[in-house]
Amino acid sequence: MKVLFENVWIYDHGSLRRGCARLGGGEVRFSFDGPFADAGDVFRVPGDGWLILPALTDVHVHLREPGFSYKETIRSGTAAALASGYGALCAMPNLNPVPDSPAHLAQEISLIRRDAAVRVFPYAAITRGEKGEALSPMEQLTEAIAFSDDGRGVQSEEMMRAAMEKAAALGKIIAAHCEDNALLHGGYIHDGAYARAHHHRGICSESEWGPIRRDLALARQTGCRYHVCHISTKESVALIRQAKAQGVDVTCETAPHYLLLDENDLQEDGRFKMNPPLRTREDRLALLEGLRDGTIDMIATDHAPHSAEEKARGLEKSAMGITGIETAFPLLYTELVKKEVISLPRLVELMSLAPNRRFGIANEGNAAVFDIEHEVTITPERLRSMGKATPFAGRRVTGQCMMTVLGGEIAYSAIETEGCR
User: Fold this and answer.
1) Phi, psi dihedrals of residue 58, rounded to the nearest 5°
2) Of 331, 329, 317, 308, the residue nearest 386 (C-alpha)
3) 53 CB-near residues (< 8 Å, 6+ apart)
4) Residue 302 catalytic?
5) What CA–CA distance (Å, rounded) separates 388 from 383?
6) Counting Cβ atoms within 10 Å, is residue 72 exposed (0-12), middle (13-18) or buried (19+)?
7) Predicted structure pTM score
8) How many other C-beta atoms lie within 10 A of the C-beta of residue 41?
9) CB contact at 8 A, 181 and 153
10) Which of 150, 191, 302, 371 is catalytic?
11) Count of CA atoms in the C-beta half-sphere (13 A) of 307
12) For residue range 263-322, what is the model confidence (pLDDT) as tens digits?
């Protein structure tokens, strides 16, 4: 099947241009000088109000298989991603078994090859069982996209130094979940005004930025390619900004919820509980400034689905993590681009180009088509993911994915069912 879009907005080398696009049948072609002369047998779509971008890439998702398929499966999670404009995902390693050996990694890769609707690149664990006690055989796990103990911080400086030295020798990235367990004290939301007012145990900001400061020094010493996961504090932004100025090979990500929400938005509901937690307004504004000045390289979702029962226990006892992959682009387009916080080309850089560049992911022949005028309400029950917990339930957004093209072929289309104007 081929679809011809006429008078559509197209992202083209850092700018937006009106043109025609022919997608499907093995090709992704654009014309900015009028209709295609050889349009052929195609399904024609008037493109007013529609936008074509490179397919999105999310370097931080939890697909929960193997080991936790009651929360999400590779099939359900990648179906959700495909219908949201994503062409590639990097899957975190907090699984059962943890991908900390060739056999365990092969088990995950087998499931990916069988069930994934988009390309999935697995992380391998930094340490055996993500326990922080012994390094995994990293030289035997180079089929993984990078190394991470996500869900847990590497507590030992010497262990992280050894991991960075090994990763540097292998030319691989260390993607760090930065969390100092000694500073947690049983906390589960940010240690701020809301926690004090509602008698909750708080997580201090230093539990995140302290390990980042340590790791940046190690990255400078070892020459490791270092990536910081889901930053949430103003101190984290400042430390990474300084390290970049000093020539450290560091990139970082944040997530939509840290950009759009803070502790003032908290409710006594498990859908507001994630790790790291929602911080202060000042932290959120610092993250937005980090987007604008290039300190923050990319936006990942930290898509972390749980069962309904696990998220129904309130702030204190619910599992940490929210669903995010289906809401990310509409939220960011609505709240950041339409409100002129950042430009649309900058959002494309953050959600597609920069992740692909840093992690070496090819995106040729992959595209996503969004309707940027149609307004919808985020409704958990309509999400394709098995995880339904989102703090954005009921939010009105624009930016609905209408088509995803992978390798020149139409892998997902809502055009026939949703119609076109």
Assistant:
1) -115, 115
2) 308
3) 11, 85, 348, 352, 367, 368, 370
4) yes
5) 7
6) buried
7) 0.96
8) 8
9) yes
10) 302
11) 6
12) 999 999 999 999 999 999 999 999 999 999 999 999 999 999 999 999 999 999 999 999
